[in-house]
Amino acid sequence: MTLPTHIGSEPTSHSRQPVYALVGNPNCGKSTLFNALTGLKQKVGNYPGVTVEKKIGTSYSQHGQPMTIIDLPGAYSLAARSPDEAVTRDVLLGRRTDTPQPDRILCVVDANNLERNLYLVHQILDLGRPVILILNMMDVARKAGIDIRSARLERELGIPVIPCEAIKGKGLVPLRLAMSRPDLPLSKHTWDVPAAIAPAVSELQASLTDNDGKSPFTARAEALLLLTDQNSVHVAGSAPLNPRTTEILDHWQKRWAGEGMDWAEALVSSRYYVIGKLCADTVIESPVQNGPSASDKIDTVVTHPVWGWFVLGSIMTVIFLSIFTFAEYPMNWIDDHTAALADWVKGSMSPGDLRDLITDGAIAGVGGVVIFLPQILILFFFIGLLEGTGYMARAAFIMDRLMSRVGLNGKSFIPMLSSYACAIPGIMATRTIEDHKDRLVTILVAPLMSCSARLPVYLLMIATLIPGESVPVLTKVGIMMMMYFFGTAGAFGFAWLFKRTLLKGEPPLMIMELPPYRIPGTLDVARHTGERAWLFLKRAGTIILGISIILWFLAAYPKAPEGALPTEQLAQSYAGQAGHFIEPAIKPLGFDWQIGIGLITSFAAREVFVSTMSVVFNAEDDGEDTTPLRYALTSAKWPDGRPLFTPLVCFTLMIFYVFAMQCVATVAVVRRETNSWRWPFFQIGYMTGTAWILSFIVYQAGTALGF
Ligand SMILES: Nc1nc2c(ncn2[C@@H]2O[C@H](COP(=O)(O)OP(=O)(O)OP(=O)(O)O)[C@@H](O)[C@H]2O)c(=O)[nH]1
Ligand SMILES: [Mg+2]
Hints:
- This protein has 30 helices and 10 strands.
- By secondary structure, it is α/β, with parallel strands linked by helices.
- Among the domains are: about 190 residues, P-loop containing nucleotide triphosphate hydrolases (Rossmann fold); about 90 residues, no CATH class; about 110 residues, no CATH class.
- Magnesium ion binds next to helix 1.
């Protein structure tokens, strides 16, 4: 039976601003197009699964009319398997209360993989809404010798088809013109649902319309989805089906099962049959070269079981080496200027609490952290490059063997890699993982990957540990890489443990697309780096400033009697009392009450440790020294005169920061993504417990060995 999708066109007048949704397979350039249309800065990257949540923006038609554009996570099919795909399906089917249902759909396809990409487009045409088909990445297709007869495709489908190069903004004018058309046609494309299934589709459609209150088109699309993947419709949050609809579904499924028919497979292959015919008529492939492409050649080395690791190691070394060497000059500059600012405030205000609050609280605290901005910039510049070129997906690929040993798949690795920047986007990225337990395991271990907030702590400790300039920079790089290694090994170890105990499950199969290498957009990398730098500064200006000010008060009150030494003042202050309170618990790790104050405050965010040390050790006094905090730390002492920050203590402290869960923002995100308090609390407990135990072992063993 042939079901016409629809003939005619949509109503011409819009009472509100028209809503467009950008839909397509992962990594086909939707967000790039979204940015080009709206001028916004949605994150773009050369690996599947960059966008995991919808994002709304405004664009203007060729006549200046505003239009709402929704960027959506990539999906291979409307039969969603992972939480990010579910977002796309639910927005399209109008199930989200927080998002307007799109009136018109912009289907983006990668011109290099038209056949595979058209599967989703085909499902979307069933929705009976106006669609514009965008053939993106035409530049890559052209180079690969793929020619698409877009006029023919346009005739066959009866919808506008627009070739584009989103990355260069090519094709935007025709696209805007098409979007401005008040009379966008509905597809007149028809396809044959297998005869044995067609009556079921009609019955389900009728019931979904009459009993579940769906519009006829949504009803038909949902009927087809129900038959291809029942789970995809019975999701949390969507209204349960009317009993009558379920009854019809059960009836047909029992009947087909009795006949030994695989109805889902029959539907999928009949779709592919139509798509195959469509592509045969419209895609002309003339291979321009024989033999492997440049991408393939690079991959034989980069994904090689031995050389791959070598490449990964070299890249990491280059990144850390750059962090240590190139940051020197701008760091000194920032340091000089914060010192000058503090001096200026000192000179222009009369002595008193307010002056001290500004210099010893705000400037010392924020300055102590902002000094690490150059390193953060360098780190994110490299991460941006790795994401843009497509190397991230390769790193995930070579890690896959290791991942499957611990019971995870390559899909968990992108979230874990992203956590090197910050656990929050990492945890968001777990939405691409289909299996609930695998997703949870990944969320639980992601914060063990050393995030950029730990960088200032490591850098400060390494500087204190190796004060001289005589030590080769590679030693510092080595210690730093050790910390990253410990964090990563810890994440793998705990993933292994959780997969065997709490969250048992089959090791999943790896389904990871390796995107072709691309030269990243300069603007994308700059934007990515700039955005992260801005986030870092914003944290310094808000959370770190706030905590520094509070901490200053807690350290300045209650006031000690006249003539007391600064350390006596701190010791009997509220902050000092808190530090003393936890000292018994941390003394076995080699930490005193002053470090204890830092441990307490850095539960808000890890960098706060650095600003706390600046406030506690009141560091910016010495005009002479260019690295005052480090200097203050090396001269800090226990009451009996022993030095406090011995190399062993610095090292132990770094170990503590590798493992401890210290970030309220992450706790909040884990709470939201797991929808319970149980998991974030469990995470705080197991991570901080591990941090304590390992620090204890390191410190005690180190002391026994005479370090
Ligand atoms: N050569 C070329 N690259 C492009 C084009 N459009 C986008 N890209 C690149 O393709 C990659 C993927 O782009 P995104 O916009 O992140 O893709 P997406 O569809 O939003 O991906 P997900 O959010 O993962 O579903 C990025 O590296 C872009 O720079 C294009 O027209 N030509
Ligand atoms: Mg995207």
